[in-house]
Every structure is written in structure tokens, then in C-alpha cells.
Amino acid sequence: MRLSRFFIDAPLSLGQHDLPEASAHYIGRVLRMAPGDAVQLFDGSGQEFRGQLLEVGKKNVRVSLDQALAGQPESPLHIHLGQGLSRGERMDWAIQKATELGVDEITPIVSERCEVRLKDERADKRLAHWRQVAISACEQCGRSSVPVIHPPMTLVEWSNVVDATLKLVLHPVAEPMVSHARPEHLAFLIGPEGGLSDAEVEQAKTAGFHAARLGPRVLRTETAPVVALAVAQQLWGDF
Questions:
Q1: CA-to-CA distance for 134 and 140, rounded, in angstroms?
Q2: Rounded CA gap, 27 and 231, in Å?
Q3: pTM for this entry
Q4: For residue range 30-58, what is the model confidence (pLDDT) as tens digits?
Q5: Which domains does the chain have, with CATH numbers?
């Protein structure tokens, strides 16, 4: 039987813990787990803990952790994804799959052809939602560290501040990714549903990005990060 595994947004250690209310509600009310059930918890520090549920109430869950484990190793390739902001499920899909593929940081990018505009309270809610998407992906795929989801930035802002030994902007007319030497820290820039304009690609190049292509076909905005990250992990990471 598969061991239930959960992210806990609080520091963990061996011994007994009362879980945060949100986690307690999910374990007790949604999954209807019971005292004695085995669990494995992680807090994003890279370490994992096994134990069992002691008490399960409507709003409180108490757990006893008796075994500390080394978490899943992260890829040696640090990747920061600048993902063009897209609508609802497409953005969720990109964040979920990028997390599964080992990305370390994700910044939603506001560009010329973006069809989504986020402001103030709505932006905060979307950011919290995206973080939960990444957490759920970590719980599913076995990652012990949760990628950082940054607040949305404009293309100019992000391209001028992102720090990486190799910075790539995906473009259908460019050199293949394999033509570049192995970096330690990689930044990917992927456009929104309408793609990046020629002017934006040139802005990125001025900021130190190299144009790179994945193949002869034009990929959707939610497909491109899956393919790009898989290729990068195969070339330079842990695939």
C-alpha cells in the first residue's frame, strides 16, 4: 500500500506535532484518515519524516514522527523558468509539470500578447493558488523541496534581473539547445499563448538571452516548458 505523503507548511522534527489547520482538514475531513494510519511528511527543507497519526479531529490532527529520512536529491541543474502568463488551466499545467521536471524557480511573465492581467488581491490569490499547485505536484512526484513561485513580473523586469550562467528564450528560428555547453544555472523564457513578439525576443537577447529551438513544430505555451525542461534535464541534469 502506498504511504500517504504530505507537505506541511511548518518546520518538522522527530516527536509529536499538531498539524496546521489546513493540513488537518485535508487529512481528517477530505481523506478521512484515522489514528494509526501511517504518513510521510516533508516541510520543504529537503528532509522527510515518517510516523503515524495519533489523533484525528475535525480541525486538529496530531502526528508522531519517529523516523527521519534524506529527501529526494534535487537535480544538479538549477533552473529558473520565466513562463508567459496564460489562462487558468494552462498556467496550472505549466507549473505542475515544471515542478515534476525539477524546476527550482518559476516567475509568471507579463508580456505584450498576454491575455491575462492580474492586479492586487486577485494577483495574491493566484500566487497562492500556483504555490498550492506546485506543492501538490511535489507530493505526487516525490520531491522534497518546493520550487519558489515568484510574483508576476514584466518581461523587461525579469530578463534584466534573472541570474543564470545560460539564459535561453525559445524561438522557432534559432540554434538547437544541444549546441550550448552545460550550465550550472539555467534560465528559460517561454512566451504566452500568443507567443513573444519579435521586439520582445530582441529585448531578451539584449539582456543576455540566446535564442534556442526545440524542433520544427510550434508548441503551445503549456507544452513548451514540459519539452524544454525534459530536454535540459536530459542534456545537463539528472535524466
A1: 10
A2: 36
A3: 0.91
A4: 999 999 999 999 999 999 999 999 999 87
A5: 4-70 (2.40.240.20), 78-236 (3.40.1280.10)
